[in-house]
Amino acid sequence: MVPRVTEWDLDPRVVSFTDPADPRLGDYTGLRESTLRRRGSAFIAEGELVVRRAAEAGYVPRSFLLAPRWVDALRDVWSRFDVPVYVAEAGVVESLTGFHVHRGALAAYEREERYDVASLVARCRRLVVVEDLVDHANLGAIARSTLALGWDGLLLSSRSADPLYRRAVKSSMGVVLSLPWARAKDDEAVPAVLKAAGYEVVALALREDAVSLGEIAARHAGQDTKLAVLLGTEGRGLSDAWVRGADAVVTIPMAAGVDSLNVAAAAAVACYALRS
Known about the structure:
Blueprint: E1 14-16, H1 33-37, E2 42-46, H2 48-56, E3 61-66, H3 68-73, H4 75-78, E4 85-87, H5 90-97, E5 105-110, H6 117-123, E6 126-130, H7 136-148, E7 153-156, H8 166-171, E8 181-183, H9 190-196, E9 200-204, E10 211-212, H10 213-220, E11 227-231, H11 240-244, E12 248-251, H12 263-273
Parallel strand pairs: 1-4, 3-4, 6-7, 6-11, 7-8, 9-11, 9-12, 10-12
Antiparallel strand pairs: 2-5, 3-5
Helix pairs in contact: 7-12
């Protein structure tokens, strides 16, 4: 029987491989977070939706790594670029990457940081600001809530996790790729920079003198005030310097003896309550 020849079999960009040690696949080798931290020039999009959203957001691909069933399904994406499309069975991809790629589609895109602090605060009216957030899944979830609930951007302290790490991109469902974000260089100056740009700065913190989130929400109902919400690192929360620099300290009322929410959940609640 003569094997069926598909259209992509004839495309020179499409390269089938069976050897996970092939040097052309360096961007995908051992995709652990520690490995990605050492690579500053690319980020990985995982899953059909995220691969699409990265292209739609204007990021430039370096290559695609696809299970055979995704070659045709993602043709409308990869065919727009003159880059390699590597094709392999799931077991080979797992040996290469070091984890189970259950969606069968990966792409390596050129990394970009599109905004600095000045340009971000100039374009945004509702801004989520995170201090020293280290968990990439939490950061991705916060980015997703930020965009989904109508906020304009995300500002990160210098020591916060990277929005373009694979886990952050994946947990945001790719929306972090279209959300404006920037990273601060001088963390201590962040509250003052926000105030100088006309923001009311609200810190989420467990403080005895804090006011209820509902009170702040009522104050801003129907208004288009420039507003920045500060969220602290997992466990410790916001630094004293950022709390002191805020115009108001706010808590989300808790029940049943629970003292606080996960930072990503708290961000979603605050974004919903304070949306414009």
